[in-house]
Amino acid sequence: MSTPDMSTYVVAIGHPSLQSLVGPFVETIRTETRRFDRAGIRNPKPFPSLIRKVTDPDRRLFGVMTDGELVGMGSLADDGEVAMAIAATHRGRGIGTCLLQHLALTAERDGYTRLLMESSRRSRPIAQLGTKFGWTSFDLPHGRVEMTLQLPSRATG
Question: Which CATH architecture has domain 8-150?
Answer without folding.
Answer: 3-Layer(aba) Sandwich (3.40)
